[in-house]
Amino acid sequence: MEAESGNKEKAMEESIEKKKEEKKKRSRVKQVLADIVKQVDFWFGDANLHKDRFLREQIEKSRDGYVDISLLVSFNKMKKLTTDGKLIARALKSSAVVELDLEGTRIRRKKPLGERPKDEDERTVYVELLPKNVNHSWIERVFGKCGNVVYISIPHYKSTGDPKGFAFVEFETKEQAAKAIEFLNNPPEEAPRKPGVFPNTVKNKPIPALSVTEEKKKKKK
Questions:
Q1: Where is the RRM domain (predicted)?
Q2: Where are the domains of the chain?
Q3: Considering the entire predicted model, what is its pTM?
Q4: I need a labelling partner for 112 at 20 to 30 A (CA). Which of 47, 84, 128, 218 fits?
Q5: What is the C-alpha to C-alpha distance for residues 63 and 118, in angstroms, rounded to an integer?
Q6: Cα–Cα distance measured from residue 161 to residue 135, given in angstroms and rounded to the nearest whole number
Q7: CATH architecture of residue range(s) 120-184
Q8: Sequence-distant (≥ 6) Cβ neighbours of residue 115 within 8 angstroms
Q9: For 8-36, what is each residue's pLDDT tens digit?
């Protein structure tokens, strides 16, 4: 009887562990699906597509605006998430930006790309003194406190691939960009001592809102 009772307990423990593993697996898959949608919605979103000449050309080459999902798999950021085209298709069924074709092998924007906004420069903030290991996620997390970040450009050195220490952050509205500038020029007292809250600013020197074009002109001078 004791042996039989022990076997039942062991079986129950194994069943519980199995359910836990299955739950973890479902959670991981759910997160990957969400990350895929977020990445593709960004790529095909207005802010990125106006600047991404390669992807725009791929779309324009297509007669009906569709591009093959295999193109997405060739991008490094997608490779880090998955190389499974079927999983990508499954994720994109919930996309607000793109739609699948009937076969589920190609995608296109739900709405045509309009003209490039004229106020893009006014919605873009130049930020410097960033951490050496800065990435898009860090900037989005930090500046998301000011509004909806729609595009981030982090220049890197060609020789090493390291970030140059500054970035351009584009917001959805001019008001959000103005709020970001206010935080940069007048950060909370604790900000410089708390990495990840807000970047340090140059002492007694305000950080201006420069457009990408203006910054390039400044460098040439």
A1: 123-186
A2: 8-109, 120-184
A3: 0.69
A4: 84
A5: 28
A6: 12
A7: 2-Layer Sandwich (3.30)
A8: none
A9: 677 777 777 777 777 888 889 899 999 99
